């Protein structure tokens, strides 16, 4: 059940929402979903299972793929969306609640546009607004095939955010983080990755990872993710101060969502223990702390996780 309570009704909706929920990819393409086939899922698998569990999973999948003659599905396509099998388009069937949620997502996206356009203008720069693509189950992107299983994600290659609305049900039911601002926080976090792309941060992180060990690369990923959390806080700061969008209790919802999807909490739920060296997004405490820092200070300078001595 979706919960909508922010002061969002009657506000501007973004023209940058692309609805691909009526598109259906062939079943085998969905099985290989995730930037370069199932390889796209490896960061999530590693995040939850750790090195040993991931290695076992790879051996099992490669073995199955080899003996089934479908090894290419595992190896993937190098991240080129043009090589993905074609999709079929069907009319979008949606409930009234889902229709309302689409309007909410569009309104939140518009509000992030208002914030970041102004913040970039103040810095003497121009903000390039991203597209937000709604899909179901799987979608072709410039980063490969994206799957609903990995949750909302941002693709720097095409500068688009991808979202399967079913994630919001999971956020409430599985992670115990209901409420509209919890949903808005998720969107704002992905927009934070877009800001990192425009600022050249994402490219620098990607390049730096090439010469790092897995543990060191994970630590760099954590800093990048926590900065996106902080950027989400900057948006919340601006939305509350400039447009009075938020109501009492909204911030608590955002904090609950940040805490719910911390690496330590997810790993504890999945296997009963945590492996800090395998964290790629940060602990619940870290995610909450950096969201609150952006919320309280509202400046890009406050969100420099890469220069922070301690996260």
Q: What do you see in this structure?
A:
With 311 residues, the chain is an alpha/beta fold. It has one domain (17-25, 80-303). It contains 11 helices and 8 strands. It has helices at 27-31, 42-68, 71-75, 96-122, 166-173, 180-198, 201-209, 214-242, 250-260, 263-271, 284-297, and strands at 17-19, 23-24, 88-89, 131-134, 138-141, 144-147, 153-155, 160-163. A 4-stranded mixed sheet has the order 1-4-8-7, covered by helices on one side. The protein has a two-stranded antiparallel ribbon with strand order 2-3. Helix 6 packs across helix 9 (250-260) and helix 9 (250-260) runs antiparallel to helix 11 (284-297). The chain starts with 16 loop residues before the first strand and ends in a 14-residue tail after the last helix.
Throw out a few tags for this protein.
about 50% helix; four-stranded mixed beta sheet; about 300 residues; single chain; disordered N terminus; alpha/beta; about 10% strand
Q: Indicate the radius of gyration in whole angstroms.
A: 19 Å
- Identify the overall geometry: globular
Number of domains: 1
- What helical percentage do the residues reach? 40-55%
Distance between the termini: 35 Å
Low-confidence runs of at least 5 consecutive residues: 1-5, 28-40, 61-86
Strand content: 5-15%
Identify the quaternary structure here: single chain
Largest sheet: 4 strands, mixed
Give the topology string: H per helix, E per strand.
Answer: EEHHHEHEEEEEHHHHHHH
- What's the count of strands? 8
Averaged pLDDT, please? 80
Helical/strand content category? alpha/beta
The main sheet orders its strands as: 1-4-8-7
Total of helices:
11
